[in-house]
Amino acid sequence: MDFLTQVMASFGLLLDSTVLFYVVAGFLIGTIFSAIPGLTATLALALLLPLTYSLDVTTALMACASIYMAGMCGGSITATTINIPGAPSSMMTAVEGYPMQQRGEGPLALGHASFASMIGGVFGAVLLVLLAPLIADLSLLVQTTGKCALILFALIVIVIAQRGNVRRAAIAACLGLMLATVGLDAMVPVARFSFGMGDLAAGIDLMPVIIGTFAISELLTQLAENDAAKRIREQLKGVAKIRRRDFIPPRSAIRRIGAACYLKSSTIGYLVGTLPGAGGSMGGFLAYVEAVRTSREPDSFGKGNPQGIAAAESANNAVCGGALVPMLTFGIPGDPITAIVLGVLVINGIQPGPQLMESQAGLIAPMLAALIFSALILIPLTMYLLGPYFIRIVRIRRDVLFGSIAMLAVVGSYVATYSTFQMMMTLVMGVLAFYLRKHGYPVVTLLLGFILGPGLEEYLRRTLTLSSGDLTVFVTQPDSLFFIVLTGIFVYFLAIRKPVRLKGSENSG
Amino acid sequence: MSRLLFSSLFGSGAARFHGVLGVLSLGYLIGALAMGPPLEGGKLTPSFFPLLIGLLATLLCGLQWWSAVRAGASGAAEEAPSGSASRRRFPPELALMLATLAYVLLFQPLGYALSTLAYVLTVMLLFSGREKWPSKAAIALAITGAGYLLFHQVFNVRLPMLWG
Question: How many angstroms separate the CA atoms of A43 and A216, rounded?
């Protein structure tokens, strides 16, 4: 059975009430977390991670997919209503959504955001279903040296994607790599940096790193910024009541935006998603810039133009499909969410990489079906049914919310090994991540360094052993040369060439 | 210059944090060096990769620290806490760190129910203050109960109990 047929058949799994429950619950949790400024779908996934020990892996992956999709569109709620994006991916939605809200067209802006998210999400997921098997076949051609160059490429791109913060990003990546070396060496049975502690000799588990980095550090950050968050909550009290019928965008408005805008933005989002470290915010930004550039009325942007919302939202949801390409085909996550999805696979003893699409297609197909289902059905349905109540949901009491998150995070880290050592590691990682964030270090590079570290070390050592220490092997092997040239191109465009600037962005800050 | 260096090293702020990371990286590098030579009999040893990463991290942290030191007084002003935060004697985030540490240490001796109830209530009080604490205690009890149902009943996780 080919992969496309497997994905189609996987829709049948959604008829199972348990699976459907987790997919819908995942979507709602993802929407709520991404709608609350400061919280993200990444945090929702980090909290879900321990539960995947008890869940069936197919169900867990399907729930992850729906959280991912929800995380990309939920941020538009507060971006539109109070000009504060709930998630970074909705940054550009705020630029057009908030002026519409001020004109009394807030629900319509949310309707446009929802419709565009649906188009982008489906487009990205379908493209993933169609292209992933081809890319997986190509990835089989990549040998040890090429794999080493590929991981280096991913790490370098993730670091330089943090523009203006590259050195800090590189330090965070090094910290992740350093943490990954703790424990038994993969090739020789020698314990490294374990300080005689049996628990450390086994290495640092992925779970405390993820929960610490994204949940505990978030709790600490939110507490440190408690006053600002209270002000946001006050702002939300002033938002006018939203009526359900106001959400539906008229056909004429959709026609004015044009199919070309939706498709072009979705393509941009998908391609950006395939790049390590890029994410929804970059996808949305580039699609928005392109919409402004090609518009006949560029001056109308920034004043509540639905085309800007359509471009940004279709792109950031298309990112979901793109970002899963490197994770599924090479085992290289490009952002924290795909890193956690990779964690779910690893926890269940599945090794992501070129063989995954071939050997575990039965596991991957349902996840992609859930991605399409979330985009096509859950995004519009959630917006229509729960739209009027979103503002009330987002205003949930912070003490209750963070009390629950704290309990889920700490007890969740106990689940993996039934040991308080993992809980302690979670706390240590959380405190480290909190101070890193406080001083402007992007923690996503720490996580990706930690995840990619073992692979990088293994392939580097194998390459140098096989070539007797000859470094020229990196330029004589075609697969490795390809990734080195690609790295050079990305370094030029992301680190050397001047960044794209929006017209008038200097004024808006 | 020496005063600036002193304040960067021992004063509060970014330079001190970069310095701490630099010291950690250096410690890691020394640990890697202690593991033995990176090459033995023409083969790469387990110390090869840590040496490479340790060297890179130490270099980058050193550069970052030096940049912060050079930023000098403006950097110090930038890092100074502002508003109400500066008036706080004990930062709430530090209180949360200590509460979480106590929770982890007491989780097994006290059992899930008591330790979680105390922890959730502490987190709630840290976020919203001490007023109306009895109602917050009731909510903390509900959260603890919900957590028990989720982990123990739904996901079959064996949670430590004070008795049994």
Answer: 10
> Maximum distance among all alpha carbons in chain A?
70
Establish if A175 touches chain B: CB-CB under 8 angstroms.
Answer: yes
C-beta of residue A456 within 8 angstroms of C-beta of residue A155: yes
> What is Dmax (Cα atoms) for chain B?
70
The two tokens of residue B127 are 């976020």
Would A505 be classed as within a structural domain? no
What's the average model confidence in pLDDT over B71-92?
57
Spatial separation of the C-alpha atoms in residues A148 and A66, rounded to whole Å: 32
- Element (DSSP H or E) covering residue A476: helix A473-476
Q: Does A171 touch chain B (CB under 8 A)?
A: yes
CA A240 to chain centre: 31
- Flag if B57 and A408 touch (Cβ within 8 Å): no
Taking contacts as CB-CB distances below 8 angstroms, the residues of chain B near A222 are 127
Whole-model pTM?
A: 0.85
Closest by CA position to A379, among listed A18, A125, A16: A125
Q: Which of B31, B57, B100 is opposite residue A410, by nearest beta carbon?
A: B100
Flag whether pLDDT at B12 surpasses 70. Answer: no
pLDDT tens digits, one per residue of B118-147 = 999 999 999 998 889 999 999 999 999 999
Interface test with B, best of A155, A411, A458 (most B CBs within 10 A): A411
What is the average per-residue pLDDT within B24-40? 93
Looking at the domain assignment, is residue A312 inside a domain?
A: yes
Token pair listed for A469: 């220490």
* Residue-wise pLDDT tens digits, A488-499: 998 888 778 766
The residues, any chain, with a CB within 8 Å of residue A286's CB and separated by 6 or more, are A268, A272, A315, A500
Number of residues in chain B: 164
* Tokens coding A468: 């007797």
Please tell me the distance from the alpha carbon of residue B18 to that of residue B58, in angstroms, as a whole number.
10
- At residue A503, what is the residue type? K
* Residue at A31 is within a domain: yes
Assign residue B44 a region: left if phi > 0, alpha if psi is -120 to 50, beta otherwise? beta
pLDDT at position A239 over 80? no
Sequence-ordered list of residues with C-beta below 8 angstroms from that of A393, at least 6 positions apart, any chain:
A32, A35, A386
Determine the Cα–Cα distance for residues B83 and A187; give it in Å rounded to an integer: 53
Rounded to an integer, the average pLDDT of A406-435 is 90
Report A:54-73 residues touching B (Cβ under 8 A): 54-55
Out of A53, A402, A407, the one facing B116 most closely (by C-beta) is A407
Question: How high is the pLDDT of residue A397?
Answer: 85
| In a domain? residue A118 | yes
* Residue type present at position A393: I
Identify the residue whose tokens are 């990489």.
A353
A461 to chain B: which residues are within 8 Å by CB? 44, 48-49
| A224 lies within 8 A of chain B by CB | yes
Note the pLDDT of residue A326: 87
Backbone dihedral region for residue A469 (phi beyond 0: left; psi -120 to 50: alpha; all else: beta): left
**pLDDT score, position A228:** 72
Q: Are residues A215 and A43 in contact, defined by beta-carbon separation less than 8 angstroms?
A: yes
Specify the number of domains making up chain A.
Answer: 1
Neighbours of A432 (CB within 10 A): 23
How far apart, in whole angstroms, are the C-alpha atoms of residue A205 and residue A309?
A: 40
Question: Could you report the per-residue pLDDT of A272-305, keeping only the tens digit for each?
Answer: 888 876 677 888 888 998 999 888 888 889 888 9
- Specify the residue for token string 């006949």: A296
CB A40 within 8 A of CB A30: no
Show the domain range for A328.
3-498
**Closest-CA residue in chain A for B62?**
A171
